[in-house]
Fold this sequence. Notes:
Blueprint: E1 4-6, H1 7-14, H2 18-29, E2 37-41, E3 44-48, H3 49-63
Antiparallel strand pairs: 1-3, 2-3
Amino acid sequence: MEGALTKKEFMKARGYSESTYHRRMKLFRNSKFREGFIAPTKNEVYIDTELYDQFLKEESAKRFEYQII
Length: 69
């Protein structure tokens, strides 16, 4: 899968702790970008980094009340 990282690779690349990872993934899985969370099995998880980056930008815009054009 191009542009997707395993959970372990993703956590290392972003510098996330286990708790930060779970907190962010809970939001990510419940967003319109949820297709970026790929879990073919319970123990196999991939995150599409492009969709995750879009998710972060949108969350930031909501937080700072920017108008998305």
